[in-house]
Design the sequence.
């Protein structure tokens, strides 16, 4: 909950490097939560008070454990895939360079063909499924796509500048 929000990054050749911080003060997060609640706008990534805030012996900053299934796999990774493949008329995905969905359905066919040819290691028991089946993917399929399959099958389909960010 905001451990790196106050860190000032240092530019480098590939982006920005954030220093490892050992402590974000609870009172600073409390101030940000107060401002967020009063203005109805997040401050430094803090959207408001946690229901756990009133607990005296609970550290709001370091007492919450990051949970990757919802924090990465079913969150940002699923959202990225939606940006790539779904033509959302509200956000006009289809007008952006990262969009590889319809009318370029050929991308789905090529990606699905590549996914079907992947032989996973013995510890991965579920075979990679079609990108058209994304709404039915299990949470374990998202990190596998993100870490193993995606960088391989998207190469040459998703523009290079977006692959580098992926």
Sequence:
């Amino acid at each position: 909950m905001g451990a790196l929000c106050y860190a000032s990054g240092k530019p480098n050749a590939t982006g920005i490097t954030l220093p490892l911080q050992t402590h974000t003060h609870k009172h600073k997060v409390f101030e940000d939560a107060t401002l967020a609640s009063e203005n109805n706008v997040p401050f430094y990534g803090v959207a408001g008070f946690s229901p756990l805030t009133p607990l005296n012996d609970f550290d709001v900053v370091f007492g919450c454990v990051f949970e990757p299934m919802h924090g990465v796999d079913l969150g940002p990774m699923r959202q990225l895939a939606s940006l790539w493949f779904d033509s959302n008329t509200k956000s006009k995905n289809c007008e952006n360079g990262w969009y590889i969905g319809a009318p370029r359905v050929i991308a789905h066919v090529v990606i699905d063909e590549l996914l079907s040819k992947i032989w996973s290691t013995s510890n991965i028991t579920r075979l990679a499924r079609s990108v058209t089946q994304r709404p039915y993917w299990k949470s374990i399929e998202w990190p596998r796509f993100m870490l193993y399959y995606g960088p391989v099958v998207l190469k040459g389909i998703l523009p290079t500048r977006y692959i580098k960010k992926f």
